[in-house]
Design brief:
With 647 residues, this protein is mainly beta. It has 6 helices and 48 strands. It is 9% helix and 49% strand.
Length: 647
């Protein structure tokens, strides 16, 4: 193969090589060459060449001029030859000065531009230090940890796999990392052009930014903070310095310069604590091509990149200006017009403010959805939900009558997507005020485009209802299963309690209907000290009378006296009323219709065929009976009594 291999010494396990630019100069290196001598050796070489009128001269003559032993001067010459300053001819014991002597002296005195390009190769067997391809004269160098391109502009490269290629006129080709001032580039197919003194960043994987802050260190220098996000960019050009100022002797403050000729991308899928919440295929910022100067002194206010933000299912694409946020992340503070901005595909609208940072997509102010409106200091938007603690939550009555009027404070809200379900949970002591009539709900609500449901405890002006299955409309409350407690007008207790009932409260009709769900469901009358298990109940809000009836038995006729005598005691009707006051014995009877007068606190039962007491069946006059507080029954008049099948 047409290759020249530069490698470690035979038998050695470690290899070391240095590759220097022909224009390399380093002031510290220049000073170290002088050692403890009064005069710099390069100056001595230069002056003797002028004295001798030739850049080639014998070491013996040079030693005489220096007034030093030939052996000492020979050692010096061999060292300088190894360093590339002179050519040493052992046969004739003479030296020839190379251009590097003049370059170093002129560079040191500031008369000539120079560079700091030196490549160190440190390898371990079996890796070679370098391989020169004789077909194109590219030199592949291994074991390269770092290469400084400009110390004044703080530009260095770190090749992946510690490998790079040196091409014609010091061109460098590599994959890896480039540090330029306060920016760090990661990518592949990077190409450093020595003549133009720039790096073509052909395939950039990402860019990390750092900025100078207003804080200072002990020496008064600004503290540096890294920007949380990375920028992904297709390609760019990095101008290290003016091509005629590779040394940085002139203070050209505009360098380094980054020129992004293509659109770049900022993703939000790796935010602290929010990893993979905002998928990169849906949530990203496309930045316009940009150019920044003086990137080794990059301040927070220097970064403002215009572009388009794509907000997935939350926000329609919108042009924004990307800046560094207070939490040191890349983001923006969106301008919100007076009419607000649509969110979640026009399902809602936000007003006041919306921003993105390391905290994610966060809003502040007012938000509307259907007929609901909230106000919050922090609205957190995610692809699958919006979460907030709203200081104010209101719901207006809609034209279709689906929702009631509602308001509350300090409400925990979660808006689920794609279900479009709005969950609201009230705070302790701050329930939902509903219907604008004193009704409140302590619990939670579920708002959907076609319904409003909830669970918890509903308190009206005269009742307390507990259910996990509330359904609300503009004028009603429904529950398939609930416990209904009606407040007593005379005590702190309850006038009646409906357990496990299907209930509907209609505020327009001003009535409440109950239906017992099971045979074991009952209604209690604590003040009357009775329970009832009739199937259907209707409470009139205006008359404050609870009407009760047994479904299917509303028109049942009373038994005649003859029928009473023939009634089989072993086959009596199941009671629908049962006294809970056992003093003096328990009275139970069957009634197919009754009314409870809440304010007067008595029950008027009808369609009573008989009271079964001992061996007697007693039928009240017209089958009616009045029961007062503490189970007291009004005195019976004109009752029919059938005893031992006689009357």
């Amino acid at each position: 193969e047409s290759k020249v291999i530069l490698t470690r010494a035979k038998g050695a396990s470690l290899g070391h090589a240095e590759f220097e630019s022909g224009s390399f100069f380093n002031a510290n290196y220049f000073t170290r060459l002088a050692g403890i001598d009064e005069y710099h050796p390069l100056v001595r070489f230069k002056r003797f060449a002028e004295y001798y009128y030739s850049t080639t001269f014998p070491i013996e003559e040079f030693a005489k001029w220096l007034n030093k032993p030939v052996e000492t001067v020979t050692g010096l010459c061999i060292d300088m030859a190894n360093r590339g300053f002179i050519f040493y001819d052992r046969k004739y014991n003479e030296i020839t000065l190379k251009k590097k002597v003049d370059d170093f002296l002129n560079s040191y005195s500031g008369k000539q531009d120079y560079d700091v390009l030196r490549i160190n190769s440190e390898t371990k067997a079996p890796v070679d230090n370098a391989i020169l391809d004789l077909t194109d004269f590219d030199l592949q160098v291994n074991g390269v940890n770092r290469v400084f391109l400009s110390d004044s502009q703080r530009v260095a490269l770190y090749p992946y796999n510690q490998q790079l290629t040196i091409g014609k006129n010091r061109t460098l080709k590599f994959d890896g990392v480039v540090e330029a001032g306060l920016l760090t580039f990661f990518g592949h197919d990077f190409n450093f052009n020595y003549d133009t003194f720039k790096i073509n960043l052909t395939k950039i994987d990402s860019i990390i930014f750092a900025v100078e802050t207003d804080e200072r260190d002990f020496y008064g220098n600004p503290l540096i903070k890294r920007v949380e996000n990375t920028i992904q960019l297709a390609s760019a050009e990095l101008y290290i310095d003016d091509p005629n100022n590779k040394s940085g002797l002139q203070s050209l403050r505009q360098y380094p310069i980054i020129n992004a000729t293509d659109s770049s991308y900022i993703f939000f899928d790796d935010l602290p604590g929010l990893a993979n919440i905002y998928p990169k295929e849906d949530f990203y910022f496309v930045a316009d091509p940009f150019m920044y100067e003086n990137i080794d002194h990059f301040r927070i206010e220097d970064l403002d990149v215009s572009g388009v933000f794509f907000g997935g299912n939350i926000l329609n694409p919108t042009r924004q200006i990307l800046t560094i946020q207070p939490d040191n992340s890349l983001g923006f503070n969106m301008f919100i017009p007076e009419e607000g901005v649509e969110i979640y595909g026009s399902k809602g609208r936000i007003y006041d403010s919306l921003s993105i940072s390391s905290k994610g997509l966060v809003g502040k102010g007012n938000l509307t959805h259907l007929t609901a409106a909230i106000k919050s200091k922090e609205l957190k938007f995610f692809p699958d939900s919006m979460v907030t603690q709203a200081s104010v939550f209101t719901l207006d009555r809609d034209s279709a009558g689906l929702y009631p009027i509602l308001s509350s404070q300090d409400v925990e809200i979660k808006w689920l997507m794609p279900e479009d379900e709005w969950l609201a949970v009230s705070s302790r002591g701050k329930g939902f005020s509903m219907f604008d009539n004193g009704t409140t709900l302590d619990g939670s609500l579920s708002l959907k485009p076609q319904s409003l449901t909830g669970e918890g405890i509903v308190n009206t002006t005269d009742s307390r209802i507990t259910s996990n299955t509330f359904s609300f409309t503009a004028n009603s409350i429904k529950a398939d299963s609930c416990d209904y407690n009606f407040k007593s007008p005379s005590t702190s207790g309850y006038a009646f309690i409906a357990e496990n009932t299907r209930t509907e409260i209609n505020f327009d009709l001003r009535e409440t209907q109950f239906h017992l769900n099971t045979d074991t469901s009952i209604i209690k009358f604590p003040e009357i000290q009775y329970i009832c298990n009739m199937t259907d109940f209707t409470y009139n809000h205006d008359t404050r009378i609870l009407s009760m009836e047994q479904k299917g038995k509303e028109t049942t006729q009373l038994l005649t006296p003859d029928m009473l005598l023939k009634t089989d005691f072993k086959n009596l009707d199941k009671p629908t009323f049962l006294a809970t006051n056992v003093i003096g014995g328990t009275i139970a009877f069957s009634s197919w219709k009754a009314r409870y007068h809440v304010d007067q606190e008595y029950i008027e039962a009808e369609n009573i065929n008989y009271l079964h007491i001992a061996d007697a069946l007693i039928q009240p006059e017209q089958g009616k009976l009045t029961i007062n507080r503490r189970a007291k029954i009004n005195q019976l008049q004109n009752a029919i009594v059938a005893i031992n099948n006689k009357h």
